[in-house]
Amino acid sequence: MTETLIILGLSFLAYILGSIPSSIWVGEALYEKDIREFGSGNAGATNTFRVLGTKAGILVLMMDVSKGLIAASLPWLLGFVDIYSARFVNLQLLFGLMAVVGHVFPVFANFKGGKGIATLLGMVIGIHYVPALICISLFLIVLFSTKYVSLSSILATISFPLLLIFIFKPDEPLFVAFGISAAIMVILTHQKNIKRLVAGNESKANIRIRKRMKGRDR
C-alpha cells in the first residue's frame, strides 16, 4: 500500500513537472510575448523557434527535454525497485508519460500546451540514451537542412522504434511498444503539418547562425 502511494505521488509530481509551460514563461519573461498569440498558436518549442528565434527556441527545447528526462529519472528515488528489472523501466515509462501528459495538458496553462515531442525525447534519453542521441542527431541534421521543425520531429520519432526493433533489440517489449505508439501519436498530432509540408506551405523555423570573421592585425 505504501509503495503504491509513493508511486502515485511521483506520478503526480511528474505531471506537475511536465505542466511547466516553458514556452509561455520564456516568451512572457524575456520577450513580452504570449507565444500562443503568434504563429501556430501552439505552446511548444516548434512555435517558439518559428516566432521568437533560435535562442528562445533552444532554451525552451532544453527546458522541455529536461522535464521528460527528470521525470524518467524519478524511479531512481525508489529504493524498493531493482534498477535492472523490467518494473524499473515500466515506472520510467509511467513517470515519463505523465510528464508528457502534463506538457500537452498543463495545469498551469488552462490545460492547453504543446505536442509533447521534446518532453517525450527527454523521457527516452532517461530510459535508453543511445538510440535517443541518434534520433537527436537526425533531428538536428534535418532541422538545419530544411528548417522544418515538424519534419525533423516526425522523422526523428519514427526512426526511434526502427532503431529499437532492428538494432538495439531491448528486452522490454513494453518499451518497444511505447516507441511504436509514440511514432503513431506524432504522425496523428502532426497531420496538419504533414498536409502543409506536402503542399509546400509549412512555416520554417527562424534559425539564424551568425558567422564572425576575425580580422587580421595590420
Quickly count the helices. Answer: 10
Strand content: under 5%
Q: What's the shape? A: globular
Radius of gyration using CA atoms only? 18 Å
Mean pLDDT: 89
User: Residue share in helices?
Assistant: 55-70%
Task: Report the uncertain regions.
Answer: 211-218
Task: Return the domain count.
Answer: 1
- Largest sheet, strands/sense/barrel: none
What sequence of helices (H) and strands (E) makes up the elements? HHHHHHHHHH
What structural class should be given to the helix and strand makeup? mainly alpha
Distance between the termini: 77 Å
* Number of E strands: 0
Report on the architecture of this protein.
The structure is a single chain. It contains 10 helices and no strands. With 218 residues, it is mostly helical. It has one domain (2-199). α3 runs antiparallel to α4 (54-73) and α7 (129-146) runs antiparallel to α8 (149-168). The longest helix is centred in the N-terminal third of the chain and has 20 residues, at 54-73. The radius of gyration is 18 Å and the shape is globular.
Give the structure's gist in a few sentences.
With 218 residues, the chain is mainly alpha-helical. It has one domain (2-199).
List the helices and strands and how they pair.
Elements: H1 2-18, H2 22-30, H3 45-52, H4 54-73, H5 86-104, H6 117-127, H7 129-146, H8 149-168, H9 173-189, H10 191-199
Question: Tags for this entry?
Answer:
disordered C terminus; 10 helices; mainly alpha; 218 residues
